């Protein structure tokens, strides 16, 4: 089992920045991929950014150049630095860890005001 605890969401004005953190505990050695997804009411959860165990990253086109995902293996934590935030980034953001099984955090609300 893997437990994921997210932090760092909140309310920010357009153009501002936030950093999300996701701390993993438990059977962390089973984790290959870690990523951040987001979801708004009535829409499917979408991948925002992901990082593999080797450090390779991928991003949704809508956040490229604005968001940066990083992984601190010593702290078992993945971060999502979000800059130049837009109202369209408003969503509940979920941390995901994928390995032997698929694990999700509880979600953290990000609200960007115009």
Report on the architecture of this protein:
- With 114 residues, this protein is mainly beta.
- 0% of the residues lie in helices and 59% in strands.
- The protein is built from no helices and eleven strands.
- Strands 2, 4, 5, 6, 9, 10 and 11 form a seven-stranded mixed sheet that branches.
- Strand 5 (46-51) and strand 6 form a beta hairpin.
- It is globular.
- The mean pLDDT is 94.
Briefly summarize what is shown.
The chain has 114 residues and is mainly β. The chain is built from no helices and eleven strands. Strands 2, 4, 5, 6, 9, 10 and 11 form a seven-stranded mixed beta sheet that branches. A four-stranded antiparallel beta sheet has the order 1-3-8-7, with no helix packed on it.
What descriptors fit this protein?
about 0% helix; mainly beta; about 110 residues; globular; 11 strands; four-stranded antiparallel beta sheet; seven-stranded mixed beta sheet
């Amino acid at each position: 089992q893997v437990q994921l605890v997210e932090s760092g969401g909140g309310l920010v004005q357009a153009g501002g920045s936030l950093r999300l953190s996701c701390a993993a505990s438990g059977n962390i050695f089973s984790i290959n991929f870690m990523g951040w997804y987001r979801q708004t009411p009535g829409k499917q959860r979408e991948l925002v950014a992901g990082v593999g165990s080797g450090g390779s990253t991928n991003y949704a086109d809508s956040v490229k150049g604005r968001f940066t995902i990083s992984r601190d293996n010593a702290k078992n934590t993945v971060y999502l630095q979000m800059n130049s935030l837009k109202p369209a980034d408003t969503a509940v953001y979920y941390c995901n860890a994928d390995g032997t099984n698929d694990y999700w955090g509880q979600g953290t609300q990000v609200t960007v005001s115009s």
